[in-house]
Structure formats: structure tokens, C-alpha cells
Amino acid sequence: MDSPRDTPRSLSESSPIDVLHVDADPEFAALVAAALERECEHITVHTETDPRVAVDRVRRDGPTFDCVVCDYDMPDLDGLDVLASVRAEYPELPVILFTANGSEEVASEAVSAGVTDYLRKGDDTSRYQLLANRVENAVERYRASQSLNRGLAAIENATDAVCILGDDGGIEYANAACTELFGYERAELLGRHWEAFYPDDDVQAVYDSVLPEAREGQWSGQSSLVRKDGSLVNVEHTLTSTADGSLVWTLSRVSKRDRLETKLSRRERAIDEAPIGVVLTDPDQADNPIVYVNDEFTDITGYSHDEALGRNCRFLQGEETDEAAVAELRAAVDEREPVTTELLNYRKDGTEFWNRVRIAPIFDDGSVDLFVGFQDDITPRKTYERLLRSNTARLEALFEHSPDLVVVHDDDGTIQDVNQRMCEELGYGESDLVGKTIWDLDPASDPERSRAFWTGLPANEPHRFEGELERQNGTTFPTEIHLIQLNVEGEQMFVAMIRDISEQKEREAELVEQNERLDRFASVVSHDLRNPLQVAMGRFEMLQDDCDSDHLDPIDRALDRMDDLISDLLVLAHNGNDAMEVEPVGLADLARACWQNVVTDGATLVVETDAVVDADRDQLQQLLENLFRNSVEHGSADGDVTVTVGETDRGFFVEDDGPGIPEDDRDTVFEAGYTTSPEGTGFGLNIVSQVAAAHGWEVAVSEGAEGGARFDFRVD
Q1: What is the pLDDT, as a whole number, of residue 83?
Q2: Minimal CA–CA distance to 18: which of 58, 53, 55?
Q3: CDD domains from the entry (predicted)?
Q4: CATH number, domain at 403?
Q5: What is the three-class DSSP state of 705?
Q6: CA-based angle 636:641:647, to the nearest 5?
Q7: Rounded Cα distance, 452 and 34, in Å
Q8: Fewer CB atoms < 10 Å away: N or C end of the chain?
């Protein structure tokens, strides 16, 4: 059994990812591990085929895993049971259900249970590339959340007292250090106005000078504040304004020198792990050079810490950098004001990247001590915007001439635009629809549930669901809807591409009715026919003991034939009703196992292939066993027949050296009831044909190398 690293990684190690993969099928589990590690070289997969062992392993080694990928349909515990166990131990650890047995109900239940992502298995390698992308995205969000939680924990456990003052001056948050500083319980601090901590003679001065300066950005200074017991405590404290109008109040009783050194050490550790690039520059030195960069800055730019320190930030600029954006940054530094802008920068290797830069002065005793710069790589967003602009005309043409009904609405459900196809189908004019809400067109939908669903919809990822629309004349029709959320100029917009699925629903209803008939037929065959047949067989065995007659052997053969007919009829009924589970199947091993299930007398099996076929194992087993029985039943009188299983360029074959199938009969051998053997049911080759068709294979009958029958299956 493989093991991940013994200790959890820090967030600064952004490349390696350890995935625990849980799947009861060893062969498929090995395939997923190989595919993921091939798609993403920094992913390491640790496999468990027993879900109970996997749950125990998560309890023991959970912090060492970055993500759990789990099948749904497994013995003992299913994927949702594994999810519940993981969530009980590690509520934020990413869990992705990767399963073949999926449905909208399973997906909905998984989302309700807190699954991170849900992905259906497929029969092409693109599914593994998609799974690798989902794993990377989930781990990235997980690590960012961990970083944020550590930042919040750092504030709560900080040695400095930290309060947040609302716009009314009352304390909205106080960390643990505040209770020690002021002598109040935390509940007593919440809601208390800042005036309660100042001597009466100092309150007006705070209103006159401290608060105005803090509202403009930041104020720092010394004060004597009042504790709960009436004593005074001398503090160094800072008030910093935030965008929502509140103030962050930090206080410390230690000397300024000690406070600054402690704060620098703590903040540097936190900034090192920040998920954005952070730069500090010193305006007191010539050319305002960089004095600190964090790890994310080096990842974004490609420059090491040593290569960046001592240089002005302009070294990232290049030929295509916008001079207006540069001038905006320069003016803000000169005026000691904060600013945010976007500009094209260059990495060390010369490649371009779009950089959103936010800079702000850091004040100390009323003067600027340092400048802090935050740098985000927004290249993907800029690329998308450029692509969107370049394709606007084509998108508008697609919108208007799409065969689908297209509607654009905002996050409140109000329709902003529709295409002509939408108007034609519903019987409205465009002006009749724009301004309505989507609930006017689908009265059965729930606005609250819809809004909650939109809130959790990932941007730029389409989500499929089904609904119903109402025409102007009051008639309704079922729909398939593909909904995607877009951010347009900072606002959320939703584009719904809608398709009328009335015919599909009619076919599904017919299929349900057909399956119900098959179920009833299978019930009659398996119970109402097999039960009396078993009674007849039992009575016949007793009759053989009681008397001797020439009629006994024909009766025995007739009963056996009836039993074979019932078995084949059940196979035909269930083949049309059972869902296929396609997986890689080793043809040689399965052929040998099937041979053991067939009464072969003196027949011989020869296997000349190591091919692996993507198939439903149970149905492929039924196909091979029926072909083997067909060869044995139609072989020579002494049972001396050889059956060969081999591979071709396009698939595989099964042939024998028996009497073969007449050329005139080769077009009819797969029809129900066809047989040339008195022991045959006439359904064996029909079952072979149905199994092949269910897999999308082509089957052809020809003469074998030794004159017998040959069945070729084209599977690609």
C-alpha cells in the first residue's frame, strides 16, 4: 500500500498534490491513477479499493491528502457514505465524486451533502484531463481557504488587541487580546462605543482630529485609555478606515520598537503565504526601491527575491506597457495616495502578463513609512475579454439565428434579452418578454430556490437541467436548459439556451412503458413458467425412479429445452432493460472463464489474443457463452470441435472448425428462432446480435479457416 508524505505541506509549496482515489474496481482504479499522473505531473494518486479502509486512512492520514476522489457505487459503503465520513473529520477537504452510476438525483444528493465536485466517468481520455483540472481547481480553492482561515486565526490569537468599529462608533468585533487589555469580557465589549475607553477630556479631541484623519486613510499615535476598573493603560494604537466605512483599531501596551519588530515578523510570515503578489517599497531611499517581495510575487514574475530587491517596480514594464497606467501609478506615489490600475507587464522570461496593481501608503507617525503593492495576474480575464470583444459580431449572429431558444436574465430573474426563436415559439413579441421574469414563463418554478441555485453556480461553466415553459396561449412544453453565468462589466448575467424536448419525453415515456412490459414479461417467464417447469422436472426425476420407458428420454430432452428457452427469454428481456457499465475487459481471461460455464464435452478452446475490450462485462460474458454453446451444439457427433478466440485489426473473432453455417443462412442466423440443432432454442445468436448492437459493434458471419463458422466483431 502506497503512502503520501508523512507531514502536511505548507501553502507555499503550490505544486505537489496528493490525491486519495477510492474505487472498488482495481483495474479501473489503476487506470485512473495512471491517467491523472500522466495528465498532471505534480499529482500523486494513492489508491484504495476498499471504502472502509479508505475511510480509516482518511481518519489517520487526512491532513496529508489534498483531495479525495471517490466512486459512488461500491460495496459496504457508497460514495456518499465516504463523503459523510470525510466531512465528519475534515469539513473542508475537497471530495470529488467520479462515478459511472450517476444521475441528477445522485448529483443533487451529493451537492446537498457537501461534495466539492461531481463528474461522470466516460470512455474517452478527455474525462481524465477534465478530472485532473477539477482536482487542481478544488485544491487551489482549498489552499486559499486554509490561508484565509490561518489569517483569521492569526488575528484572533494576535498579541495586539484588534477591534472593528462600525460607522456608529460601536465595537463590532474584538479579539482575545482586547479582553486582557481593557479588562472586559468579550460580550461586554461588543456594542460598546469607543468613547467609553477615553477620558472625558480627550473625547472631543478624538472627534476633531483623530477620526477625520482615520477616515481619510489611517491615524496612529499614543493615548491613555480607560480600563473597566477605571485604571489607565498607555497604548500605541492605530485606526485604519475600510471601504465599508468601518474602522480597524489595533492597540498594544508594549514599546513602539518592540511592537514594530513583533508586528513586522508576524505580518511578514502572513504575507509570505498570501495568494497574491505583495511588494513593499521604501520612499525614503533613492528611486523608491523594493525592500520586500513575497513568494507569490516571484511565482507571478519569475524573478527571485534577490533579483527583485533594490529595484524600482518599473523593471517589470516593457514595450507594450501603457504609459497612461504608469503615469497614474507615478502620480499616486508622488501624492502619497492609494491607487488601483491594470497594465501589461513582462516576466523574467519575456512573456507578457496582465497585472492588476493596487498600491497604498503605509503611515507611521503621520508620515509615509513604506508603500505596499498588491499584484494579481489577471491574464486569463483579459484574454477572455479580448476574445469576447473579437467575437461579438459572431456571437450576436449566433444569438439571433440559433435553433435554440435563448434568453438572457439578471440575478433577479428579470429578462434582459431574447432571440427571435424564443419569441416565435412562445408567441410573444420581444417587447412583451423583455422586463418579465423567468417565473412568468415557468410558473411552476420557485423564485427562492432559483436564486439560491444561481448564487452557487460557478462562473463560465454551463449547467444542464430540465424545466417547462408556458406559451402565450397557455400550453406548456418540457425543456432542456443549459444555463451559464457570465460577468459582464462587473455584473452577473445568466444566459439560458433552451431546447424543446417534447419528442424526447414522449420517447422516454414509451421506453418506460416498454420496460414495464418487459418487467412484467420477465416476471411471467421467471415465475409463472419456471415454477411449473421445476415441478415437472422434479416429478420426472421421481418417475424415472419408479418406471422404465422409451418415452422418458424424449420427455427429459423436452424439459431441458423448455428450461433453455426460459433462460434465453429472460436474457432477451433484461438486455433491453439493464443499464450497461462499460469498462476495460481482458478478452482472454473472460473467454477462459466463460468456457468453464459451458458443457463442452470433448471440445477444445484456443485463445490467441491479449486484447482488452471496452464492454459491459456481464453482457460480453453472455455473448461468448452463447457462441461457445452454439459451436459445441453444432459440432461433430463425437464433440471433437475446436473453438478459437482471436483479435483482428478492428476487434476480435470467435470461430470453430465444425460444419459451419450455409452461406444462404448467414443473413438470418441472428433472427429469433433460428436454429439447426434439435437442442437449440433459436435465441442464442439473437442474443449475440443484441449484445453487439448495444455496444455499437458490427458483427459479421463468414466461413472459418477450417471450414467452420466464424463471427467477426468490429468494435472501433
Answers
A1: 92
A2: 58
A3: HATPase, HisKA, PAS, REC
A4: 3.30.450.20
A5: coil
A6: 140
A7: 38
A8: N
Q: Tell me how far apart the alpha carbons of residues 526 and 147 are, in angstroms, rounded to a whole number.
A: 61
710 plus 583 within the same structural domain: yes
Q: Name the average pLDDT for the chain.
A: 81
Amino acid 673: pLDDT: 54
Of the candidates 305, 191, 184, 173, which has an alpha carbon nearest to the alpha carbon of residue 250?
173
pLDDT in tens, 605-644: 999 999 999 998 878 888 898 899 888 887 765 668 999 9
Centre a 10 Å sphere on the Cβ of residue 359 and count the other Cβ atoms it contains.
20
Question: According to the model, what pLDDT value does residue 545 have?
Answer: 74
Q: How far is CA 275 from the centre of its chain?
A: 22
Cβ contacts of 293 within 8 Å, gap of 6 or more = 277, 278, 279, 280, 305, 308, 309
Tell me the CA distances in angstroms from 546 to 537, 539, 541, 542, one per residue in order.
14, 11, 9, 6
Q: CA torsion sign, 632 to 634 to 640 to 644?
A: negative
Angle subtended by helix axes 552-575 and 684-695, to nearest 10: 10
What span, in angstroms and rounded, lies between the C-alpha atoms of 44 and 31? 13
| Domain of residue 483, residue span | 391-500
| Residues 87 and 114: beta-carbon distance below 8 Å | yes
- Any idea what DSSP says for residue 659? S
- The torsion angle over the Cα atoms of residues 235, 238, 239 and 242, rounded to 10 degrees, is -140
We report the CATH number of the domain holding residue 85 as 3.40.50.2300
How many CB atoms are located within 10 Å of the residue 161 CB?
Answer: 22
Answer yes or no: is pLDDT of 257 > 70: no
C-beta of residue 436 within 8 angstroms of C-beta of residue 460: no
> Last residue of some domain: 201, 229, 263?
263
